[in-house]
């Protein structure tokens, strides 16, 4: 992807098609995690893949639409968590552009960065809407334990979120990375709106 395209609002047809596809992948990931009762969300695979393929703008749009749909169909509170999804899409899109999807080691590191970003953005929301909890059984057990030991709410809430986000975002980024690496190079260039492909 050429530098001038990273923040371009002129999206290729392939990039526009990628957005609903990414939202669909998010739904499948979330349903899979819930069905198996995993201590993960897996609801950002499509957002992260979109960021890897088409950059931060498409990643952010995919994340925002995903939460708008969640807000309309599952819980209105999902609207505010759109901030987290947008942040993840932006960060992954930027770092992917910078070459952070070259190997699985970089993908794991990208997952760690995404988990920190998600935790920082989500923690104030959790405190404002849920008294600091995440709604995840594993994370909230940690939260309850820390509160019982008289930790400040914001620290307990931050750790609660991070305990879930850390494995979730690493798993999510690695899954998205494996999908990304499995795609033909010509298709990847097409999603990125490279003029060389547009002219073919």
UniProtKB/TrEMBL annotation:
TM regions (residue ranges): 48-72, 79-101, 107-129
Keywords on record: Membrane, Transmembrane, Transmembrane helix
UniProt keyword Flavoprotein, yes or no: no
UniProt name for this protein: ECF transporter S component
Organism: Clostridium neuense
Upper classification of the organism: Bacteria, Bacillati, Bacillota, Clostridia, Eubacteriales
């Amino acid at each position: 992807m050429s530098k001038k395209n990273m923040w371009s609002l002129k999206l290729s047809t392939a990039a526009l098609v990628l957005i609903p596809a990414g939202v669909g992948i998010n739904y499948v990931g979330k349903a899979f995690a819930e069905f198996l009762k995993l201590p993960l969300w897996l609801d950002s695979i499509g957002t992260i893949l979109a960021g890897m393929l088409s950059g931060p703008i498409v990643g952010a749009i995919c994340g925002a639409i995903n939460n708008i749909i969640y807000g309309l169909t599952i819980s209105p509170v999902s609207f505010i968590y759109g901030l987290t999804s947008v942040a993840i899409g932006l960060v992954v899109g930027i770092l992917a552009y910078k070459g952070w999807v070259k190997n699985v080691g970089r993908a794991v590191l990208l997952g760690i960065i995404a988990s920190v970003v998600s935790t920082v953005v989500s923690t104030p929301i959790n405190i404002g809407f849920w008294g600091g909890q995440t709604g995840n059984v594993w994370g909230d057990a940690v939260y309850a334990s820390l509160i019982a030991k008289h930790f400040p709410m914001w620290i307990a809430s931050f750790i609660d979120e991070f305990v879930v986000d850390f494995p979730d975002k690493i798993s999510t980024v690695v899954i998205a990375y494996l999908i990304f690496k499995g795609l033909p190079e010509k298709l990847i260039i097409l999603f990125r709106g490279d003029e060389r492909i547009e002219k073919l």
